[in-house]
Amino acid sequence: MLIERNVGENPHSEWQTLLAIYLRRRGEQWQIAVRTELRIRARENWYPIPERVRVAVIGASGTFPVHYAACAAPNVWIVDPFTLESQLATPAGGPNQVPGKTLVLPGTPIVIPLLEVMAE
Q1: What end-to-end distance do the CA atoms of the chain give, in Å?
Q2: What region does 114 belong to: left with phi over 0, alpha with psi -120 to 50, or beta?
Q3: Is residue 100 left, alpha or beta, with left meaning phi > 0 and alpha meaning psi from -120 to 50?
Q4: What pTM did the predictor assign?
Q5: Where along the chain do its domains lie?
Q6: Is the four-CA dihedral 17, 117, 68, 88 of positive or negative sign?
């Protein structure tokens, strides 16, 4: 069964591309791999692509997430490509507003300043 959905317009596409490039350039340093449009299992027989920016960051080992959000993904970051306001959901809770347009993932070297992503 096909379900029609909004997959984003130019600002969404541009943001997804810029973010993926920014992350890929830092992949070795941060020991991550970057994938776009990655399908993951949310529950039995359901493999959605998230409705917003669709960039997945996984461990450099190449192991892909099997589940999404509350199921197993440790962090879900939601960014508005127009305002660069964002929220982060973690296993501890959320989504919570990300201050200063900069995502900092505790316990990792990952720091993503959105204005720098857009300027690169």
Answers
A1: 40
A2: alpha
A3: left
A4: 0.71
A5: 10-119
A6: negative
